[in-house]
């Protein structure tokens, strides 16, 4: 009887020790794994950098893919629209309607007439430039006082003030007038240029490299923010075949890169 009790005791003690051992062994194994999972990775802790994809002169014939593509890709883009073109064309009016209901597209002002292509004459009268901008706003029903001037890379954002080479001759005074009336005027940090047939001049890899280099080295107007001018022609191919998809996919491999609407660009923050 005593022997049996002893055997039970020994067996029980052994089981307890085994269980305790398992618990400690489990803890020992779990301990180094947990912090690795909890601690942020190097990538995630990198500062967030904002990319603003902007498209001028639309809506245009051939840009019908834009609406469905940005919805499918959940890609935020900003479009600067020219009202005169839209008013002349039912198809473009339909595109405008799609743009305005698409949460990934924000529509801004690129003037009503696009200066009629005569920039020097257009900019010689700042008040008529203001009228033209206000006409675009009214005709297209634009919600934001955000402008890109036709044919000029000029910025007026709070204390941020930048002219391109042509602005001194024409454009600078008009931009000042717009700023005085509460408009934000956006230029661009870099442009993805294209040939007449719509094929891009810089390769996808050249553009990716330029964007990465500028963001990492701070070579943009505002640190950690880059405004890119792209043309609707980039949307003429199907999305799967397009260079723009390749660009977006490559930029999205950076976890700290975020596509944002121009409206959220910081105002008055100069590097
Ligand atoms: Zn334009």
Task: Provide the β-strand percentage band.
Answer: 15-25%
Ligand types? zinc ion
Number of helices: 9
Q: How many E strands?
A: 10
- Unreliable sequence segments: 11-40
What letter string, H or E per element, gives the SSE order?
Answer: HEHEHHEHHEEEHEEHEHE
What is the typical, i.e. mean, pLDDT? Answer: 85
Structural class: alpha/beta
Distance between the termini: 87 Å
> What does the radius of gyration come to?
28 Å
Core attributes:
6-stranded parallel sheet, 9 helices, globular, 271 residues, binds zinc ion, two-stranded parallel sheet, alpha/beta, single chain, 10 strands
Secondary-structure topology with pairs:
Elements lengths: L1 H37 L10 E10 L6 H9 L3 E5 L1 H5 L2 H12 L3 E5 L9 H5 L2 H15 L5 E2 L7 E3 L2 E3 L9 H9 L3 E2 L4 E2 L12 H14 L7 E6 L12 H9 L5 E3 L12
Parallel strand pairs: 1-2, 1-9, 1-10, 2-3, 4-7, 8-9
Antiparallel strand pairs: 5-6
Helix pairs in contact: 6-7, 8-9
This protein binds zinc ion.
Structural features, described:
- Helices cover 42% and strands 15% of the residues.
- By secondary structure, the protein is α/β, with parallel strands linked by helices.
- The strands form three sheets. Strands 1, 2, 3, 8, 9 and 10 form a six-stranded parallel beta sheet that branches. Strands 4-7 form a two-stranded parallel ribbon.
- α6 packs across α7 and α8 runs parallel beside α9 (243-251).
- 34% of the residues are buried.
- Mean pLDDT is 85; it is low at 11-40.
- Bound molecules: zinc ion (ZN).
- Zinc ion binds next to β1.
- Residues 56-57, 110, 114, 150 line the site of zinc ion (ZN).
